[in-house]
Design goal:
two-stranded antiparallel ribbon; 215 residues; disordered N terminus; mainly alpha
Length: 215
């Protein structure tokens, strides 16, 4: 009888959380600190667009800027130019500030997920209504940022390249080149994956409720 009681109590003693309290607290503090630091740097960068000077890598959608001195009878042309602009004109500065703000929102979405997962794993209660909602919203935000951000960035940088007469083309002719060469589908795909993960969380929440009903 005493042996049975001892065996019954053993699973409770051997039960371990997925993430220890110390590790979870560390991840939560680290994600919060990263959110504050990246937000500060993002705001600083946005202010710099309006105060100048700003150094940007501009696209050169032209083959007029040829590269000389190449060996092996090679030919080439420049596709980007690092330019320092003392004072950004109105229009591109606003677009670039929006790009920086959208990028920071995407970073905050990822850090929010890290904070959430650390908090939930610490308590071993992962599938909750709040978790489903946060994962889904963060996924939608990343998908939006990954789509709108590169478009605004391309518009601003191409416009600046035309305004400083760097690409040798008239306004509006270099957009397709830049978008096809620089568009990054990573944030968009990550956002779509997180939306699917939110669905998995919802399904896991239902299973967790069914399991609790059987206990």
């Amino acid at each position: 009888m005493m042996k049975l009681a001892k065996d019954t109590a053993r699973p409770q003693n051997d039960e371990k959380k997925i993430v220890s309290r110390t590790d979870a607290v560390f991840l939560m503090i680290a994600s919060a600190a990263a959110a504050v630091l990246t937000t500060f740097m993002s705001v600083k960068g946005i202010v710099g667009y309006f105060t100048g000077p700003v150094t940007l890598e501009l696209p050169l959608a032209t083959r007029n800027q040829t590269a000389g001195g190449l060996e092996l009878e090679s030919t080439g042309h420049y596709t980007t130019l690092e330019a320092t602009i003392p004072d950004l004109p109105s229009g591109p500065d606003e677009l670039l500030s929006w790009v920086a703000a959208l990028n920071q929102i995407g970073v905050l979405a990822i850090l929010t997920l890290v904070f959430l997962l650390a908090y939930r794993l610490r308590s071993a209660v992962l599938f909750t209504a709040g978790s489903v909602w946060i994962v889904g919203v963060c996924g939608a935000i990343l998908a939006l940022v990954g789509t709108v951000g590169p478009i605004l960035d391309g518009l601003a940088l191409n416009r600046l390249a035309e305004m400083i007469a760097a690409n040798g083309r008239t306004p509006g002719e270099s957009y397709v080149f830049y978008f096809s060469a620089q568009f990054n589908v990573g944030p968009l795909m990550l956002g779509l994956v997180l939306v699917l993960v939110a669905g998995v969380f919802q399904y896991g929440r239902r299973l967790q409720k069914d399991t609790e009903g059987l206990v």
